[in-house]
Amino acid sequence: MPKSNDGGIGGAMNVNGYTILDDKNANILGLQGGQAANLASRIAPGKRLKSNVPKLKAAAKECPFKDKEICMVARRRILRVLEEVLSYNLFTEEKERTARRLEMYDACFELGRACNQARNHEEAAKYLKKARNGYEEELGRDSEKTLEVTLGYILCTTWNIDKDRVEKLTDLVKRAETSLGPEKVVTLGSLSQLGTCLHGNGNFKEAGKVWERCVKGGVKGRAKRVC
């Protein structure tokens, strides 16, 4: 496990020689071998935070760390900054406030993925659930983002041979096919995972039928990994 020092949103965090946030809440940085990789522009207090949110959104999606533990810590820090931005109540229009909340849920989703890849499944489930609930409230139960994070949450919280996973994936496939169509990545990913789960439970014939639907969808049973 990496050694870390988390000083809170205004403090420094050092993990295995990386500085994730400096003590003045000025930069999100990744430092390795004396070279700094900026993840976000300078974050100043007050209204300047407002103009930096899009850059933080990009940072959440483009975190360059290869170390899974470091990536998890960096994404957690990014989420905290986005949450702090929202706490300033800088946004007067509801449309803008909604956009900022969605950015925060995007960061929750990315953090959930990073936690899952680092095998921190309890934390992953917590953040994926938060993202799912947020997307559902803002975008609707059967929006693409809600369905995508729901797939990740199912995979994180159930076992491959668990019948509960089969039931949840079957329901998710129906929702995705109805609202998104049979060729969308989320639909195909759900089908692919359902086929894998059925195969693991010994339902080889049904698994084959599901994978055939993936082939017809254009991915030949291999869809984009979502978690």
Automatic annotation (TrEMBL):
InterPro entries reported in the protein's UniProt record: TPR-like_helical_dom_sf
Entry protein name: Uncharacterized protein
Species the sequence originates in: Triparma laevis f. inornata
Classification lineage: Eukaryota, Sar, Stramenopiles, Ochrophyta, Bolidophyceae
